Amino acid sequence: MADFAFTRQDETHVAAATTKTVPLTCHGHSRPITHVSFSSLPASTANSAAPSSQYYMISACKDNNPMLRDGLTGDWIGTFIGHKGAVWSSKLSEDASLAATGSADFSAKVWDTFTGECITTLAHEHIVRSVAFPPVSGRVGVLATAGMEKKLRVFDLSRATGGDSTANGSPYTNGASTTNCSSTTPSYEIAPGEHQGAIKSLIWSHQDPNLLTTAADDKQLRWFDLRVPSPIATYTLPSPPPQPPPTTRQEPSPSPPAKTSTSSTRPNQAC
């Protein structure tokens, strides 16, 4: 975001300074973006206006290629190559050393953000819609996943085996090479059979690393404690109001309709 200041006069003719924020456009993705997340602000930056070089943004996209960027400038750092389907979720670990992505290729992948290498691939039985690292500094060996399986899983990354990756060229690439990896990683399902619909969102609590929250297509929000085998709380979302029946003709508008504008996104011109 770029800030600049200008002055204006109100009805009292008193000049006042106003700061306008101009959004930055990050080019690179060629299809719709499904998810964007940021790393945690370093302690020195959270309480200071000074910029930090360790603040990152990761974006998931239907072009199969999640991208890592500088969180302040939006500058491209690298593209994680390896997924064979749309990427629905992308998250960074608390210290930003790892990235996790969930995809329509029935897998979640964990990446080294410094080298771009795929550390491990976590196979699933259906589309992975959400991934999450625990928000605890130094505890990057655990990853939660959820999706169309209707299962909430927790993987122990510290015990992954067979996760060697191979690449033709640098794993960080603009699309010229690919990275493949696979492994056997211990995991367990939290509250089996609890979800009756696809899980669309997963959040790890910042207050307690044992608490997870899910949102599913069965209109339920659920709170889980990893130390308890069933949800500790649930909330049923209200149903949307019924839609009026379709009409066969359109009534004339008493006033001119509001103007709208649309634009098509060309490849490599949107992020």
TrEMBL record:
Low complexity bias: start-end ranges: 258-271
Highest taxon in the source lineage: Eukaryota
SMART domains to which the protein is assigned, alphabetical: WD40
Pfam families, per database record: WD40
PROSITE patterns: WD_REPEATS_2, WD_REPEATS_REGION
One Gene Ontology term from the biological process aspect of the record: spliceosomal snRNP assembly
Bias type Polar residues, positions: 163-187
Residues spanning the membrane: none
SUPFAM superfamilies per the UniProt record, alphabetical: WD40 repeat-like (SSF50978)
Positions with biased composition (Pro residues): 238-257
Chain residue ranges for the region called Disordered: 163-190, 231-271
An annotated Gene Ontology molecular function: RNA binding
Key words of the record: mRNA processing, mRNA splicing, Repeat, WD repeat
One GO cellular component term noted in the UniProt record for this chain: SMN complex
WD repeats: 80-121
Sequence similarity: Belongs to the WD repeat STRAP family.
Name of this protein: Serine-threonine kinase receptor-associated protein
Organism, scientific name: Hortaea werneckii EXF-2000
